[in-house]
From TrEMBL:
Protein name: Glycosidase
Keywords associated with the record: Glycosidase, Hydrolase
Keyword Secreted belongs to the record: no
Species this chain originates from: Haloquadratum walsbyi J07HQW1
Composition-biased stretches (Basic and acidic residues): 122-131
Positions of region (Disordered): 1-26, 87-139, 215-257
GO-annotated biological processes: carbohydrate metabolic process
InterPro entries: GH, GH13_alpha-amylase, GH13_cat_dom
Transmembrane segments: none
Positions with biased composition (Low complexity): 100-115
Coiled coil: none
Length: 722
């Protein structure tokens, strides 16, 4: 189906890239504006298959694309420019731009007219503002599908909750008449009898800025051969059987069939459940095993690097790791990191072959591990045969595959001299890369998407729909620095927590107060990430100096505690658990630090065993005092304390980034709560069991709890503070 996808939400002053999906480069596509506000003069270049839409006035636009198979319409809801979010740079076109270019829908519209007035209202301020957030829930009540919105005001915002406006939008790809839909401020209702195979509903919250959209799907899951309906049990979902007469309906491929009804409700932007419970481990494939372990001469019958990696899986299983991120494994220009790819369809010969790679993945699966494939889509190596044919040759069939800075110099970022950026305006490039996605998603459980900020948002939206249609549990993790909230709007499931990473570095170096770690967690909400967004927590990776080198050994032990006790999904970079000091050196297995390994192993076990430490646990800052005495003297700025709660259990976590043990007293809960914590009540005294669950030893002293670097303590009782 070549429909350009879910409709969009943007504001005047923002632009949007539009492209037919699943394109055939051999045919023509024509874009045009079908409907626009009366004052608009926007036109689209009708002969270009990939176009930029830049609205000139608020209102509802409908654009169309003519394809060989059909004509498709796409609704674009445009807000006044004054409602545009001020965020970090993103990429709608693949060549920079402003994030906030969203996908949504716009049939029917349910909101007051107060925000959609005349004039562009383009913002003239550059101060970053907080954004409201929204989460949709689907339900079935009698003979209606019900979509309920839970909007939230931005932190420190002046808008009352009752004044948040919600705009519901039905997907253009779904055949539902606006005449049968009813809406209120917080709710949309659709008669079941008016719905075909499925209906997708999108919504945003609007205050003085619009939110990242959320989406929910009702799917009858028909079988075109007339077989019994299959209910998708993707979590979270609500499965409801509805007894009706069989209907005839058409699926996305134009096939028709008779089916029974079994309606599945799925929140489309929810991360896969498995992905929020894992510990991720990055394997730098050309350094994790040494040459003595892997004979990479594929002309012989000896082992490959992948076979050697397989031999290390039991070590990782014993550590507690259950998700592996491999740095790129495709044919490349021999740079050891592997990101300069010369062949996107074949495994690098120095690592093995496709059979060896797939055997490794199977072995990981046998141990209950998932595997993330490092997907590099922004560029190819300059040694790629397409680039070699194109450079200096305007007549090359591949010349237009690349973006060019000059006749002989390709576009790239940061003056990187070994890569060349793809031209995503070219349908052949998009087709080529979609085929890459199809090939490798079949032998992975998720993609770690390299340089996600540099690839057009329109391509990520298509990629997401493409892989999620085939496997709703497939994980999409974006590398975007700094993170961008809009990337959770129909593009990615999980995000590198770049803000927390930077804060952990500053705290480790002694340049920031340890309590700023909690501010970093709050920042997710402030920039507009919805409550269901997932974050990967990391302190180092293959691009960064090792934390232990930059911040010292005790800070490195403390940061381990941060990764496994803060809300998010922890990630270790290979060797971090053994005290490795070289960034990309071969791992020094013989010099592994047992005490560091034990620290990580215990923390992984704790997070697995205690639900409050996971992504669903709330987090609350704690008032605490660092005691200054002869035995323990640590600056209070080096210590942070917080409480994690879930399932009627609470745990106090203390991190000490100082060089010596800290004696800490917990006085009461702070009235400030963090990241989706419940409404704050009166302060309460916190009583804890003095056993440090990380060490298994008592931390009790006459003056408080003594913490070397990480302490996790069970809360025994809480009483109102009088």
């Amino acid at each position: 189906m070549q429909h350009p996808g879910p409709p969009r939400f943007i504001a005047v002053g923002e632009s949007l890239q539009l492209s037919p999906r699943d394109p055939d480069p051999e045919v023509s596509y024509q874009w045009h504006v079908e409907r626009a506000p009366e004052s608009s003069t926007v036109e689209l270049p009708s002969e270009d298959p990939v176009v930029e839409f830049t609205p000139d006035t608020p209102g509802t636009f409908q654009v169309g694309v003519e394809t060989p198979a059909n004509n498709y319409s796409l609704t674009i809801r445009v807000f006044p420019g004054s409602l545009a979010p001020v965020t970090a740079p993103g990429s709608e076109s693949g060549s920079g731009g402003v994030s906030g270019h969203q996908s949504g829908s716009a049939r029917p519209v349910a909101r007051s007219a107060g925000v959609s007035g005349s004039g562009s209202g383009i913002r003239d301020d550059t101060v970053e503002r907080g954004r409201p957030r929204i989460q949709l829930q689907g339900d079935i009540e009698e003979d209606e599908l019900v979509i309920k919105a839970n909007p939230q005001t931005q932190p420190d915002g002046e808008t009352a909750h009752s004044d948040i406006e919600v705009e519901f939008l039905i997907d253009d790809r779904d055949d539902v008449s606006p005449d049968v839909v009813s809406t209120t401020d917080r709710e949309m209702r659709i008669p079941i009898e008016a719905v075909g195979r499925r209906v997708r509903v999108h919504a945003v919250a609007v205050t003085d800025v619009y939110s990242v959209p959320d989406s929910v799907e009702f799917n009858r899951d028909p079988q075109p051969d007339g077989g019994e309906a299959i209910v998708d049990t993707t979590t979270p979902s609500t499965d409801t059987d509805i007894d009706t007469q069989p209907d005839t309906c058409e699926d996305d491929d134009g096939q028709t069939g008779t089916h029974n009804h079994a309606i599945n409700i799925r929140r489309l932007n929810e991360p896969p459940e498995w992905a929020t419970d894992v510990t991720v481990y990055e394997i730098y494939v050309r350094g994790f095993v040494d040459e003595a372990e892997a004979d990479t001469d594929t002309d012989t019958d000896t082992d490959s690097t992948f076979a050697a990696l397989t031999e290390r899986l039991d070590y990782l299983a014993d550590l507690g790791v259950d998700c592996l991120w491999l740095t790129p494994v495709l044919q490349n220009d021999h740079a050891p990191h592997g990101y300069n790819i010369t062949d996107f369809f074949h495994i690098a010969s120095d690592l093995g072959d496709s059979e060896a790679y797939e055997s490794f993945v199977d072995a990981a699966h046998d141990r209950g591990m998932t595997v993330l494939f490092d997907l590099v889509l922004n560029h190819s190596a300059r040694d790629h045969p397409f680039y070699q044919d194109a450079v200096g040759n305007p007549d090359s069939p591949y010349h237009d595959w690349y973006a060019w800075r000059s006749e002989s110099e390709p576009e790239t970022y940061f003056e990187w001299e070994y890569i060349a950026n793809w031209n995503f305006q070219n349908l052949e490039v998009r087709r080529h890369l979609l085929d890459v996605v199809d090939k490798w998603m079949a032998v992975a459980d998720g993609f770690r998407c390299d340089m996600a900020w540099a690839v057009p948002n329109s391509f990520w939206r298509e990629l997401r729909d493409r892989v999620k249609t085939r496997d709703p549990e497939f994980l999409l993790l974006d590398e975007t620095i700094p993170y961008i909230a809009d990337f959770h709007g129909g593009m990615f499931d999980m995000h590198f927590d770049t803000t927390l990473y930077s804060t952990l570095r500053e705290v480790g170096r002694g340049h920031a107060d340890a309590t700023e770690i909690l501010d970093a967690i709050d920042q997710r909400k402030a920039v507009g990430f919805p409550p269901h967004a997932a974050f990967m927590l990391y302190a180092e990776n293959h691009d960064e100096t090792r934390y232990i080198v930059e911040c010292g050994e005790n800070a490195a032990m403390a940061v381990a505690g941060a990764l496994f006790t803060l809300p998010g999904v922890p990630m270790l970079y290979g060797g971090q658990e053994m005290g490795q000091r070289g960034r990309r050196d071969a791992l020094a297995w013989d010099d592994a630090r047992e005490e560091i390994y034990t620290q990580y192993q215990r923390l992984i076990t704790l997070r697995n065993d205690i639900s409050a430490l996971g992504v669903d646990g709330s987090i609350h800052s704690l008032n605490h005092t660092v005691v200054d005495n002869e035995e323990t003297s640590v600056d209070s700025e080096r210590v942070v304390a917080y409480e994690r709660r879930a399932d009627n259990e609470s745990y106090v976590c203390i991190l000490n980034f100082g060089e010596t043990p800290a004696t800490v007293t917990i006085t009461e809960t702070n009235t400030t709560t963090h990241e989706d914590a419940a409404e704050s009540s009166e302060p309460t005294t916190v009583n804890v069991n003095p056993e440090n669950l990380v060490t298994g030893e008592s931390a009790a002293s006459a003056e408080g709890l003594v913490v070397d670097n990480v302490g996790v303590f069970a809360v025994t009782t809480e009483s109102n503070h009088n």
